[in-house]
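Step 1: inspect the first sequence and its tokens.
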Amino acid sequence: MLDSLLGRAELKARIEELEEEKRHLERRLDAESERRADAVTARQDAEERVCVDDARLVSVALDPPLAPDPFVEWGATFRLDGDWFHPTDGLTVALVRSDRFAVGTYDGGALTEVETVETNVKSAHSKGGFSQSRFERRRDEQVATHIDDCSAVLDRRDPDRLVLLGERTVLDDVDRDAVAVEPVDASGDPAAALEDAAHTFFTTRLTLL
């Protein structure tokens, strides 16, 4: 009865409603992120280079990291451009995670001018209830600030060609045009993780048909 008189019952009910709305929005966000990831995967599958000779002696499919626009052609030899498979000078690669960021530009086959950003983002909470909601709001604010800082670095560098790699849940929050966007699992020290992510991205899958 005291809760009712003080309006606490209504407040608790409203908090529960807001928490349920938040969970609903999170489910929608997760579903949309999965949909976008599936679309990227489907596009990458469709961009495989299939090489078949007229005698059917050679038949393979390649999945180039930087696939060209789709084409079909006949020729005396297979056309495989090195730029589809290897980073060229001037290509910028960025790794974005919810608490770490690294970006570098290729020069002579190596990543140079590497910059990193690290943000102390809360990572665990177990109390539940209103305290949990407050924790999640605070963490979301920290991640948003981190992404803003990452975007500021990219804005300042203003790369002509950008490959964007990183954590699936934050890639969509980076508002930059990119020649390729791909989730990767690289973690740890930002500079080392960037090298690892770039190596993974530029590893080409070959399939015998």
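Step 2: inspect the second sequence and its tokens, then contrast the two.
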Amino acid sequence: MQIERYFQSRELQKRVQSRGQIAHQGLFITISKVADLLGFTEMQIRDIEKRGLLGPKSPTGYYHRRYGPDEIDRLALIKELIEEGYSLNKIPPNFYELWLNIQSYLYDVALSYAGEDRTYAESLAEALQHHGVKVFYDQFEKTALWGKNLYTYLSDLYQNKAKYCIMFLSKNYATKVWTNHEREAAQARAFKEHEEYILPIRLDGTAVPGMLPTISYLRWPPETAETISDIIRAKLVVS
């Protein structure tokens, strides 16, 4: 399994967080304590350091080296990779940067659609969720959305909380107040990005403000929820 795809696993994220809970208390601890907490030997940790996968820094005031939040999180992730079958020489030097890049977004994709097109959005959301993709689909988030100021919450979400925004473009999408709000928020993010952020799916040929005809689209049909899900998952791995 490619390491980037493995890093997208929600279960992995939960396990790493659980292993590294001590890190989030802001503590600096000794190598023996780290080894005991994470199931390493001290020799294994020193070998990891020699390979350039870890560089502990002692904070001011400590004579012996100490391991802080960043090092503990790295070791927790390395432990998971080892248990998954990765040998140390197969873990890339930039593994932690890859991990942080994937973790930097609450969602892999956020779906923006008109209510009349919910059937399309729901079938894609379910296909993505089935394959472990972190997807924002409002019907999955009823508890989180309840009581929130949706105008500000959704503006922030479509600008900052997903790696990609999937837009279902249609005559319904072009005329709705809320979809226009979501589109404008997503376009504000896209304006600042050097890579594509908005991934449009055309349900019909309606022109939508701000969506240039030169942008590459997927069309549904002939695409289906499963084929689009496959394309999205491939794009997440490549990115």
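Step 3: confirm your contrast with the notes below.
The chain has a mean pLDDT of 88. The chain is about 50% helix and 10% strand.
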